[in-house]
Amino acid sequence: MRPRIHPSILSADFVNLEHEVGRIAASDAIHVDVMDNHFVPNLTFGQPMVERLLEVTTLPLDIHLMIDDPDRWAPGFASAGAASVTFHAEATEDAVRLARVIRAKGAFVGLALKPGTSVEPWLDQIAEFDLMLIMTVEPGFGGQSFMSETMPKLRSLADAVEAAGSDLLLQVDGGITTATIPIAASNGANTFVAGSAVFGADDPNAAIEALRTAATLPEE
Ligand code: DX5
Ligand code: ZN
């Protein structure tokens, strides 16, 4: 599968978002970081912003919920028309129940794990999700450094996905650059979120293509 690049609008100019999403036509989806200042110490945007974005772009929206109460809010993002809704395992009592609710609304569902959260309990639950997100920084802010200590966790998940013959999307988020993306790709990631590496570039589409090239592993 061709590496998927999802630019994070957390690093975009918030007062010119329509213009900003017009600068990333080469991307596979737009990553939208929803933060509530409780689950993470930062505050961003909610469902009305997502509804408005859907009116100005044809790119799929990949929602990353960094909020305390995904059971209350996640289904609304799916109903609004998001392509995928990812919530954190640390934020809900029953992730499989919530995943089924989101899927029933027609969206892909993702499960996100913070750097310190074990993947072991989820290895036999792969079929309940369309995407799993291994955070490669502590969630909350763009522009942080990639944590390579998360790679063994990604590798064990990738091995389980392969053993299951699953087409789960394996996403990484945080500190992704042309220097770090080959590390994540070689450990099994196929979907890459990049904020500052895309929106910090003079030519975001060229940055997306450079990331995709850097994530493409040589044929074995
Ligand atoms: C961090 C967010 C990321 C962030 C990544 O909590 O989930 O999506 O935008 O930004 P970079 O690519 O700059 O590390
Ligand atoms: Zn994110």
Task: Describe the 3D structure.
Helix 4 links the parallel strand 4 (84-88) and strand 5. It is built from 8 helices and 8 strands. The protein is globular and about 40 Å long. Helix 3 (70-80) runs parallel beside helix 4 (95-104). By secondary structure, the protein is of the alpha/beta class. The longest helix has 14 residues, at 151-164. Strands 1-8-7-6-5-4-3-2 form an 8-stranded parallel β-sheet. D-xylitol-5-phosphate binds at residues 8, 10-11, 31, 33, 64, 137, 139-144, 173-176, 193-197. Residues 8, 31, 33, 64, 173, 193 line the site of zinc ion.
Care to count the β-strands? Answer: 8
Distance between the termini: 14 Å
**Topology pattern, helix = H, strand = E:** EHEHEHEHEEHEHEHH
Which ligands occur here? D-xylitol-5-phosphate, zinc ion
Mean pLDDT: 98
Please work out how many helical segments DSSP would assign.
Answer: 8
Helix content: 25-40%
- Major sheet: 8 strands, parallel
Can you list the strand order of the major beta sheet?
A: 1-8-7-6-5-4-3-2
Question: Which residue ranges are poorly predicted, with pLDDT under 50 across at least 5 consecutive positions?
Answer: none
